[in-house]
Design a protein that fits this description.
CATH architecture: Sandwich
Helix content: 10-25%
Shape: globular
Number of helices: 7
Distance between the termini: 62 Å
Number of strands: 26
Largest sheet: 6 strands, antiparallel
Strand order of the largest sheet: 1-22-19-24-17-16
CATH superfamily: Jelly Rolls
Structural class: alpha+beta
Low-confidence stretches: none
Mean pLDDT: 91
Length: 379
């Protein structure tokens, strides 16, 4: 009789718990407790079950380039002011994000094709892949750029994109849009005006080589110029050419490098020496012939686009073989290491990271593994 009473009380409690959970969820609440009687409502399992970015590789040669060519043939500028392919992480789909805080998009512009100006609260960069005359106009500075050149379009700066050449041109962009969107701060504007006149192209207000003339000599700052451009808070240098970056990597090729990052050089704000944006930073990483980095894990997420050479990366135990113009997503929290298997040629990786946003909140952490397997705290 006693056993029956216990079973009855247990059944009553289980039924009451199910009713409680139904009431909690119906009220748009989450039960932050765990019980031993009903693992279906274990909040830890539910919290860990939320969508997370996963390591993923997008192939330029096999996937992106064929689709870009098809889009250029089928979608004209009469159809849309944009013709880009956004890389959507399978773990986050359908959200337009390549990792949690950033996305990469690839754009092919036909010859002599220029889009109207727009601006947005997301910060962005353009990185040239093919074509010598990719075009971006930023706040009155008309910038023509080629492979390996990096162009900034900081938040709330009017800008437009295109191609001034006679051959198609491809570039990739990286935006912090997923982060800005998550913070409910995303805004777009398309009604560009000069005075009261609405225009489809910005008038040039600066020489086309303004960034190089003013900021191209490191350590020297003209005092007679205003260095706040656009909304401020970002680097006033809007274009970083590949040639000096490549030369800097080559000059340091024989130096002892960080064993976890290889030989990496960051693009910086010439006024502060800090990252070009408050939310993202960008750098080039050289893997010298035969080089393999040590395993690294960090809270920052990365988007990695090989620009020269080929190789592979091991992310959370999975091998991703990459070549020029691919993009590899490495979510925060993943173990990664990079390998250049070539005995003669370096591999150069263009990398975007949300490290500045994490530093601002005191959240950035990094760990490494030494050759013997010991775990070391790096940051």
């Amino acid at each position: 009789m006693a056993d029956a009473s216990v079973a009855e009380r247990t059944d009553d409690r289980a039924a009451a718990l199910r009713t409680l959970y139904d009431d909690v969820h119906a009220a748009s609440l989450f039960p932050f407790w765990a019980t031993s009687t009903d693992v279906a409502h274990d909040e830890i399992r539910q919290l860990l079950g939320t969508r997370r970015a996963v390591p993923h590789l997008w192939s330029y040669r096999r996937t992106l380039d064929p689709l870009l060519q098809k889009s250029a043939a089928l979608v004209s500028m009469n159809d849309s002011e944009r013709r880009s392919l956004i890389l959507v992480n399978p773990g986050l789909a359908p959200r337009r994000a390549s990792v949690t805080t950033m996305y990469t998009a690839y754009r092919l512009n036909d010859p002599n094709e220029v889009m109207p100006p727009h601006r947005h609260t997301a910060s962005a960069v353009r990185f040239g892949l093919t074509g010598a005359k990719n075009f971006t106009g930023v706040e009155g500075e008309d910038i023509t750029f080629g492979p390996g050149d990096l162009v900034l379009t900081p938040r709330d700066t009017w800008h437009n994109h295109g191609n001034l050449g006679d051959e198609p041109a491809v570039n990739l962009s990286v935006l912090d849009l997923p982060l800005v969107e998550q913070l409910n701060a995303l805004n777009f504007e398309h009604d560009y005006k000069e005075g009261s006149e609405q225009k489809k192209q910005q008038s040039a207000r600066f020489p086309s080589d303004y960034s190089a003339r003013v900021y191209g000599a490191g350590g020297l700052r003209p005092r007679f110029l205003d260095h706040v451009r656009g909304a401020g808070g970002s680097s006033p240098m809007f274009v970083y050419r590949y040639e000096p970056m490549r030369e800097a990597l080559e000059r340091h090729r024989d130096w002892d490098a960080n064993p976890y990052e290889g030989l990496a050089i960051e693009y910086v704000d010439p006024m502060t020496g800090g990252p070009v944006f408050k939310t993202m930073t960008f750098f080039m990483q050289m893997l010298r012939p035969g080089e393999r980095t040590r395993p690294l894990r960090q809270t920052a997420s990365l988007l990695i686009a090989p620009f020269e050479g080929s190789g592979h990366s091991i992310v959370d135990g999975e091998t991703f073989t990459w070549e020029r113009f691919d993009t590899l997503a490495v979510p925060g929290g993943s173990w990664m290491e990079h390998v250049n298997a070539s005995a003669t040629e370096p591999a150069i990786l263009f990398i975007a990271s949300d490290e500045p946003a994490q530093r601002a909140f005191g959240l950035l952490q990094r760990w490494g593994r030494e050759p013997g397997g010991d775990l070391v705290r790096l940051a």
